[in-house]
Amino acid sequence: MRILRFVVRRLLQLVPVLLGVVVLAFLLVRVLPGDPVRSILGQNATEEDAAAARARFGLDQSLWHQFLDYLGGLLTGDFGTSIQSGGSVGSEMALRVGPTLELVVISVTFALVVATVLGIWSAKRANRAGDHSIRIFALVGNSVPEFWLGLVLVLVGYSILGWFPAPNGRVDPDTGLTPLTGADLVDAVLTANGPATASAAAYLVLPVLTLVVGVVAPLLRSVRASALEVLHSESYAAAKAHGLRDRTLHHGYLLRATLVRLPSLAALVFGTAIGSTVLVEYVFSWQGFGQWALRGLLYRDYPVVQASVLVIALCYVLVFLIADVVHAILDPRVRL
Questions:
Q1: Could you report the per-residue pLDDT of 20-29, keeping only the tens digit for each?
Q2: Cβ–Cβ under 8 Å, residues 281 and 291
Q3: What domains can you pick out in the chain, each with its CATH number?
């Protein structure tokens, strides 16, 4: 009941936060240099053509009137019309969010498992060869650019070894996948399409690995530092002196205490992963949310940029809410 009240309170606080994001995104996107109408019509378009296009998208109205129209549309679930494509922003975004969320959630989940296992293993062998190897891996993973790593993985995994499909989509079109959520692997599992499941999983391996290498580095360092702190604590030493079994020490003391700090960092890493998907999606032709948002920014597509910022802010707030709840469950000392 205590956690439920906390969740309801945080969800209510979400309203003014998102309203602030809407206002800032609306104003800042119009400060960007460039004319969105000229970007789609070209520099050779006449003033009459430009004026007609501005009237079509409501850009000839006052800034205050544009904002009220945009806010009224949001209240009814209408994110506006894309200046570049002329289609509904909500419909375009619905097709793009699923693939990106699938990529990010799988990558962050896998990174959490790897960081927890390797971080605790490294802490138990502090200052030995294995520990030094893990720390070097974390340093390299934190330093390597995602786009470079993605290109190397494509070169090795596809061009040289031929183990993975070409970076030109998310699933083999010949598998006859029925789209439901936009996340191809999820859709393949839900429709019990075996060939599509295998194909979607194969297409996911390289982009997921690209994201995991960069995401796992800060998580690994945090888990190792937390595990070392627990191993050197008086409570762990007392439990060990009482002759508890190694399994009890590991699961009851070391693992639970180490994971206490992980949810907040995982939420930050989740946001970083969303930003990293922009380059990863371009390398692997993923056609996801990040690639769509960047294209909207390059073409000064106001409705697309505003919707992208709003969705990213919503993801951040919800992920941190989940992190706070998990933190409270892992650590009873936390009062919500």
A1: 888 888 888 8
A2: yes
A3: 105-299 (1.10.3720)
Least Cα distance to 317 among 3, 5, 19, 1 occurs for 19
Contact yes or no for 305/82 (Cβ under 8 A):
no
- CB neighbourhood size of 190 (10 A): 13
Handedness of CA 190, 195, 198, 199 (dihedral sign): negative
pLDDT at 333 exceeding the cut of 70? no
Distance CA 182, CA 100 (A): 9
157, 200, 203, 162: which is closest to 181 by C-alpha? 200
Answer yes or no: is pLDDT of 329 > 70. Answer: yes
Stretch among 81-95, 159-173, 244-258, 291-305 having the lowest mean pLDDT: 244-258
| Predicted structure pTM score | 0.82
Label residue 93 exposed, middle or buried (CB < 10 Å: 0-12, 13-18, 19+).
Answer: buried
3-state secondary structure of 66: helix
- 3-class SS of residue 88: strand
pLDDT at residue 331 in the model: 67
Q: Radius of gyration over alpha carbons of the chain, in Å?
A: 24
Percent helix, strand and coil across the chain, each to the nearest 5: 75, 0, 25
Inform me whether the pLDDT recorded for 33 exceeds 80: no
Q: Residue 60: exposed, middle, or buried by beta-carbon count in 10 A (0-12, 13-18, 19+)?
A: middle
